[in-house]
Structures are given as structure tokens and as C-alpha cells.
Amino acid sequence: MSTPLLDVWEAAASSPYHPSIAKDSQFTLGAFLLLIALLLAGVFSLNRSILSLPVLGVPASLAFGFGAVYMICAVGVYV
């Protein structure tokens, strides 16, 4: 007797998961994103205005968020 869950399990075995960013390049990408975030945040702190918020503040926070997650995954702490 076959169950739907067993069918899904067997179908998934033939197609392994491949991440979009390889494990070997996560550290480099994370370090690069954190460096970009540091630079953008520094420029934003020197030049604070409502116009620089979408140009510098939002990309800096996104780069820091993704960079932190990639660095955490690169050193072996999985979230």
C-alpha cells in the first residue's frame, strides 16, 4: 500500500536541492554585503536627509540583513 507522503518522499529523492548561492561563496558574498552596508551607512550618517533615505538607508539595511544571514550560514550557524 502506497501513501501520498511516501510518494512525495520518493519523488523528492530524485531531485536534490541546489541553493542559488553555493556554499563555497557564501562567506565572500556575506563579507562583501557587510562592507557595502558599512559604507552606505557611513555615507548616510554624514548626509542625513529625507531624500537620501531611499537612496542610501534602505540599500544599507538590506545589504546588512542579507550579509548577516549569509555570514551566519557561512560559518556554520544555521537559522
Automatic annotation (TrEMBL):
Entry keyword annotation includes Transmembrane helix: yes
Domain of life: Eukaryota
Keywords linked to the UniProt accession: Membrane, Transmembrane, Transmembrane helix
Principal cellular location given in the protein's record: membrane
Subunit structure: Component of the oligosaccharyltransferase (OST) complex.
Functional summary from the UniProt entry: Subunit of the oligosaccharyl transferase (OST) complex that catalyzes the initial transfer of a defined glycan (Glc(3)Man(9)GlcNAc(2) in eukaryotes) from the lipid carrier dolichol-pyrophosphate to an asparagine residue within an Asn-X-Ser/Thr consensus motif in nascent polypeptide chains, the first step in protein N-glycosylation. N-glycosylation occurs cotranslationally and the complex associates with the Sec61 complex at the channel-forming translocon complex that mediates protein translocation across the endoplasmic reticulum (ER). All subunits are required for a maximal enzyme activity.
Protein name: Dolichyl-diphosphooligosaccharide-protein glycosyltransferase subunit OST5
Species this protein is from: Bimuria novae-zelandiae CBS 107.79
